[in-house]
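User: quick one, fold this
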Amino acid sequence: MDVQIFYMLAFLVGIFLLLYLNDQLHKRFGIASEYTRKLAHFSATGSTLTFPLLFTSHWYPFVLALVFFLILLLSMNTKYLKSIHEIDRYSAGSFLLPPAIYLPFLFSVKAGDPFFFILPTLILAVSDPLAGLAGYIFREGNPKIVLFSRQLNKTIYGSSTFFVSAFVLSLIALSVNTHHLGGDTLMAALFVASATTVTEMLSPGGTDNITVPAMTILVLSLYRL
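Assistant:
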């Protein structure tokens, strides 16, 4: 058996186990779906950071993304995966997560540089759920952001958390990737954090799962010109 097929099958088993355990946390222990949803987001996305080490072809992650997407789609409006679907707002974020992981990987393979996958995925795995948790936990005294007289569905604490975490992640990742920490690295990290924070603020209904990785790749592409 091709070792990459083995890795893909192992990830499929892992996805099923993750979704099952996540649902048990929600059903048996009464953990709010806002928390279990973020936990699943962090765990599933974070685990894919191993993709550049495991897969040389993008087709294996494509199959994983397709299966994950179908599981989420078929479980909608059923008794299954309430730990992800049972939220009091509309969000397409869970359905957009599989392509949000696959497309940066495809880009990185075509570009011949795994960093185009690693940094977008890091920000997606860590900054996005942290921002959501900050906005949810500190609901009291946490005003919505107003931009050009328009109130956004984002909060001060949430967006601030996103910016700080994205900046720290970008600075560490860029420093490790370039083996250099200087003013140019600092500015690049600041640019990535600022651009992705604004993108996350302006992306409605969970679409930030797609737009944030896309913006990260765009900034990295401009930075490397």
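User: anything notable?
Assistant: The chain has a mean pLDDT of 88.
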